[in-house]
Specification:
This protein is α+β, with helices and mostly antiparallel strands and 76 residues long. It is built from two helices and four strands; from the N terminus they run αβαβββ. The protein has a four-stranded antiparallel sheet with strand order 3-2-1-4. Strand 2 and strand 3 form a beta hairpin. The model has no long low-confidence stretch (mean pLDDT 87).
Length: 76
Amino acid sequence: MHRALPFTLRASCLTQALAGWIMLSRHGAVSRVKIGVASPEQRGFSAHAWLECGGQVILGDIGLEPYNVIWTLPAE
């Protein structure tokens, strides 16, 4: 899905997730931006942001198993 959206061409995962959250919010959809970090033992330092709606990842699903959520917008 995210490859068809023009803002994804050079945007970071955080920029993409925030833009998606704003667009969905403007249309009344409830979604959450999540930011997670992977432990250094698994990947060195690595952070990633993704967007969830209806309990499913709709933007940024790159294999999220190693990431521990450190921040959610809006807060749960």
